[in-house]
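REVIEWER CHECKLIST
Item 1: Sequence provided? yes
Item 2: Single chain? yes
Item 3: Sequence as submitted:
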Amino acid sequence: MKAILLSKLLASGLLASTVLLSGCVISIDDDYEDGYHVSSGADWQDRESNNRKYISELSPGASKTTISDKLGAADFNELVSNDGDAVQVLYYRTQRVDDDGVTTKNECTPLVFINNKLVGWGELSLTKYL
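Item 4: Structure as written out by the authors:
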């Protein structure tokens, strides 16, 4: 009888300790606002500065792969066919317009590629090739 009582007491104690020791963890991260990542000041400033510097040193004819390897994934990527050629535009963030934590096209410099070769960058190139 003592063994059954001890067994029940041990099981009750184990159950109670599990309930009492469980808790809720709340993580507060200042880098997120309403589910969207908000870059810290240094992050976006460094990124924009590096993008501007690299783009200023580009030469027509550079491959899309070489540029993408250096700059990473584009903020926006568009592709159209024009007279049988693949015209691709990669947009990289280069200037801040709104302090809202969201990158928009007007904060980016477009790089225009025809058949994976750089033909120009900026709004003039975008207008010319599209």
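Item 5: Key structural point noted by reviewer: The CA atoms of residues 24 and 54 lie 46 Å apart.
Item 6: Recommendation: ____
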